[in-house]
Design a protein that fits this description.
Number of domains: 1
Number of strands: 0
Largest sheet: none
Radius of gyration: 17 Å
Order of helices and strands: HHHHH
Oligomer: single chain
Structural class: mainly alpha
Shape: elongated
Helix content: over 70%
């Protein structure tokens, strides 16, 4: 591997590590926000509302700390960020619902714990595809 290719892979690894670290923090905020929302709205709606909060935090983190050199205008970045995350929200909402209502009831009887675990597992499903989408589209140089 050439020195330039090796350097690029180190940069990409560091960038992906920052993406995962800050994405985990945004996901934790997403997950925590859903807990009180579930008290006054259906689980699936609370998951989607919490996802929007986590997505907003993620955009701010990624724009400033992971992909700071993106050249697209902010409006285009936000549009692309939302479009990429729309795929994620559908996956997270659907997977959360399937896990909470079909897979986990036989393993975990407590509804609140089952929903928390289902939502947490579903949030983690889109990290790699989101990284590629945001690197290549949202914050492309």
């Amino acid at each position: 591997m050439s020195e330039q290719a090796n350097w690029l892979s180190v940069v990409t690894r560091r960038q992906f590590f920052r993406f995962l670290l800050l994405g985990t923090l945004a996901a934790a905020i997403n997950w925590l926000v859903r807990l009180p929302l579930s008290r006054f709205m259906p689980f699936e709606v609370a998951v989607m509302a919490a996802y929007i909060v986590g997505m907003t935090v993620g955009y701010l983190f990624y724009r400033h700390y992971v992909f700071p050199g993106g050249h697209a205008p902010m409006g285009a970045q936000i549009r692309n960020f939302v479009l990429i995350n729309l795929i994620g929200i559908v996956i997270v909402a659907a997977l959360s619902s399937v896990l909470a209502n079909q897979v986990l009831p036989n393993l975990i009887g407590a509804k609140d714990l089952r929903e928390a675990l289902a939502h947490g597992l579903a949030i983690g499903t889109s990290a790699a595809t989101s990284f590629v989408g945001h690197k290549r589209v949202t914050f492309a140089r």
